[in-house]
Amino acid sequence: MRFVTGIGVVGALALLAWPAAAISAEMRGVTATEIRIGQTMPYSGPVSAFGALGKGEVAYFKMLNERGGINGRKINLISLDDSYAPPKTVEQTRRLVESDEVALIFSSIGTAHNTAIAKYLQGKNIPQLFVGSGASKFADIAQYPQATLGVQGPFRYEARLYARYALAKNPNARFAVISQNDDFGRDYLQGLKDVLGDKYDSVVSAATYEVQDPTIDSQIVKLKASGADVLVIAATPKFAAQSIRKVYEIGWKPMTFLSNVAVWISTVMQPAGLEAGTGILSTAYVKDPDDPAWNDDAGVKTWRGFMVKYAPDADLHDTNYVNAYNSAMAMEHVLKACGDDLSTENILKQAYSIRDLELPMLLPGIRINTSASDHVPVDQMQFMRFNGKTWDRFGELQTGN
Fold it and tell me: Where along the sequence do coiled-coil regions lie (predicted)?
């Protein structure tokens, strides 16, 4: 009788243990002490300037881990170089999923790159969170049910704001667009089309470039010949700097709008020549630490302290590190909200349940909100103009949705 009872107790204990084991098995990339997350970054290649985003995010989680991690677990962010080449993004993402067994993909850079891995990640039931792109396609829940846009203003929204601003100044404006030949560039064209409607084909001249191109000089000369008086530069830093410089050299003086992914002074405006960029317009959604308006801001002071301690070799003028800080903080919020349930289902539930999250390096008034039907964390921006040294913000917050 004692033997039979003993078997019963063992069996009961096994049954009690089974659900916990099953739950643990569903939480891939998670142990009692660690959460593994992965990303790809262009640490080399034509847009290596964006590698600062990965460096900043790695630094943030290092700081977080020194403070005890999240809910008792350290965050192991595995950040791999993809050279900004989609085939390599796919290769490195497969490694992260199949070898490193990460719980999710976080902040991988590039529109074409995130597109290339999306179906694979969906097939593996891996969240694709805060993608390093503002492409509006990632807000299409039917096509990308497990993705959220990054913590940035969407490209299509941004282009709508540019079109509205230009038309308010000149209802007969003619537009020229230099854009990257992929979904990143096409989002700006679509945003202009949203505003211009039937007039689009008659008032917009477009030229594209490939990321492997050495220069875009011929495209800029062609666009000037179109007679356009508004120029939209939808380009990554290297080509943005080239565009600004060439426009200046050929004496073209259109109202110029610059994609907010390429507003960095150290990697774009200075290489282009500060005098060449004076007067250019763009949009902001983060605090620029170089703006004297934030000299006494608590959030900026904390960010500076973080940078000095955890990214001591970084360029403090490179606002990519501000974006990295914001993205990592948003990811921290989601993981904290998950508690001990780090299953894919709960990670996605929390990622789509963010309510009025204020981040200290977002502009005042901008809050992150998501829901099951809204995968766009940030939809507000503020205009700014380059004065030859820094960017001056003006006007109220605006939304392009």
Answer: none
C-beta of residue 255 within 8 angstroms of C-beta of residue 247: no
Strands 281-284 and 175-180: unpaired
Domains of the chain: 34-153+295-370 (3.40.50.2300), 156-284+383-399 (3.40.50.2300)
Nearest to 342 by CA among 98, 114, 18, 69: 69
Structure token pair of residue 242: 């080239």
Gap between the Cα atoms of 41 and 52, Å rounded: 9
| N-term to C-term CA, the chain | 72
Amino acid code (one letter) for 202 = S
Q: DSSP class of residue 363?
A: P
Classify each residue of 76-109 as buried b or exposed e, where b means 16 or more C-beta atoms within 10 Å of its C-beta: bbbbbbbbbbbebbbebbeebbeeeebbbbbbbb
Residues 6+ apart with CB under 8 A from 272: 240, 241, 242, 244, 245, 248
Alpha-carbon gap, residue 376 to 296, rounded angstroms: 30
Residue 70 CB neighbours (<10 A): 22
CB of 311 within 8 A of CB of 114? no
Which segments within 152-285 are labelled E, that is strand? 175-180, 204-209, 230-234, 255-258, 281-284
Nearest to 122 by CA among 146, 100, 138, 143: 146
The CB-based long-range contact list for 219-223 (8 Å cut-off, 24+ gap) reads: 219/178, 220/178, 220/246, 220/247, 220/250, 220/252, 221/246, 221/250, 223/176, 223/177, 223/178
CA distance linking residue 185 with residue 209, whole number of Å: 9
- Residue 282 has, within 13 A of its CA and on its CB side, a CA count of 26
* Sign of the torsion angle spanned by Cα atoms 149, 152, 157, 160: negative
Q: Number of helices (H) and strands (E) in the chain: give both, helices first.
A: 14, 11
Helix (H, G, I), strand (E, B) or coil at 186: helix
pLDDT tens per residue across span 5-60:
333 433 433 334 334 334 444 799 999 999 999 999 999 998 898 999 999 999 99
